[in-house]
Amino acid sequence: MNVLVVGGGGREHALCWKLAQSSHLSRLVAAPGNPGIARHAACVAVSVDDHDGMLRLAERERTDLVVVGPEVPLVAGLADRLRDKGFTVFGPGAAAAALEGSKAFAKDLMARAGIPTARYATFTEPAPARAFCRELGAPVVVKADGLAAGKGAIVCTTLADADEAIAVCMERRQFGAAGTTVVVEEFLRGEEASFFAVSNGTDSVAIGVAQDHKTVFDGDVGPNTGGMGCFTPVASVDAAMQARIMRTIVEPTFGAIARIGAPYRGVLYVGLMLTAEGPKVIEYNVRFGDPECQAIVASMEGDLLPLVDAAARGSTLPTVTASRRAAVCVVVASGGYPERYATGLPIDGIGEAEAKPGVVVFHAGTALRDGRLVTAGGRVLGVTATADDVGGAIDRAYGAVGGIRFEGMHFRKDIGRRKAVAA
């Protein structure tokens, strides 16, 4: 099977690493890829936003399956464009990708389908949004409606914070068009979890659960990032809880999106809060999370390719064997991220890190300059380790991080530790 993976970040490196292990694979191509992905796939410099170029590449490669990694091309309709030309695609069309592309659309779908979520309202003007914040009372959450690179959900501990968040979105337009509409919702209390399920348009199967660390500094403080690390499994999501999530949230979501004529073929990431009343949806993502993908695929049993191929074709989904391994991913970021940061800084120690048992280093923001690996983004590497339990994976991951070096590198030192101690 000839496979094309669209994207060039840490998530796509993890997918290519796993797909490259399949006995069903003939050729693997990534566009645009990155230096880490180049170890597993032929990288072609086509931007994820260049739909015409991606179509030409798929045609030239005689691609049997396209796996679309990032959310932006999915929301923009790349999967539809490829399917219209006869290609088999793992990833939802634009109508279904609106689950992530529009917070307002997602909340309205949940309301119609009776899917448990926070109380909310949608606004296009600042004044009524601020009034609703006062109706709810602090803390509240203000969300930009559109895509904002994982940074559009602002937790506001005071009403003054909420007023400022609304100004950031609607008045100062910090998120551009994504923030012209906002969703204001009640703050949910509990433990967060990221739940992943694959659908073939009719049926679905759970493939894993992880817990992300969004804020940039230890102790869950500082601004939100795209994700500073994660771990799997999550002890509070046992077999009974997983079945409940599938029954009350995942299956109704896939059913509701199918009823509007947009059957879902791909992976759905459901951001959950495990509240005292039960699991409730915080948000949907229409792709593998990043860095959750790194941990999920590193610990996954068996071959990923037959699963994504069956989902893309609408065929019977193979059985997914629950992983017996734990995994932890620690993101190594550029100093200053998520604000301004330098790039082009030489990176050392990746080989030393990967020589350690159970460790793989996924590239997220790297480039080659004159044959030298350098930084090329905010989140640079995802150092991922597997072990028999989360505590062991933490030790292995941080042992590997200790060998990596570049100027100004920053990483959280508490990924998974609170849960490991509690366990």
What layout of secondary structure does this protein have?
Layout: E1 2-7, H1 10-19, E2 27-32, E3 42-43, H2 51-61, E4 65-68, H3 71-75, H4 78-84, E5 89-90, H5 94-101, H6 103-113, E6 120-123, H7 126-136, E7 140-144, E8 153-156, H8 159-171, E9 182-186, E10 191-200, E11 204-212, E12 215-217, E13 221-224, E14 229-232, H9 239-259, E15 265-275, E16 278-285, H10 292-299, H11 305-313, E17 326-333, H12 350-354, E18 359-363, E19 366-369, E20 372-375, E21 379-387, H13 390-401, H14 417-422
Parallel strand pairs: 1-2, 1-4, 2-3, 4-5
Antiparallel strand pairs: 6-9, 7-8, 7-9, 10-11, 10-15, 11-14, 12-13, 14-17, 15-16, 17-21, 18-21, 19-20
Compact overview of the structure:
This protein has 423 residues and is α+β, with helices and mostly antiparallel strands. It has 14 helices and 21 strands. A hairpin with a 2-residue loop joins strand 15 (265-275) and strand 16 (278-285).
